[in-house]
Amino acid sequence: MSPSPVPQPRAATVRGALEAELSSAPETGLTAKELSARVGISEKDVAGHLEHLEKSLRAGGAALEVIPSECLACGFVFKDRKRLTRPGSCPECRSTRIEPPAFRIR
């Protein structure tokens, strides 16, 4: 197991740091776990900050793009899901092996 990256001290706000990370996100986006490690907040707090950031981005003419979760067992894609958290189980096969959603700014 590789060591977790040590977060840098923040000079900006949490949402400002999230926006900076998402602006430079790769085409595949960043998951809540990756964002929490890069910004230095808990993974559970990421979704709440992203909801507020989404509103700010919309007001500024940008958008938060959500790359939907996908079931690793059957391939079901959660394309209509509005919540920014990882689903608990697949509605098709009931598997809990689900790829978390990823995010980026477009």
From TrEMBL:
Boundaries of every PF0610-like winged HTH N-terminal domain copy: 27-61
Superkingdom classification of source: Bacteria
Domain PF0610-like rubredoxin-like zinc beta-ribbon C-terminal, chain residue ranges per copy: 68-105
Endpoints of the signal sequence: none
Protein name, UniProt field: Transcriptional regulator
Organism per entry: Archangium gephyra
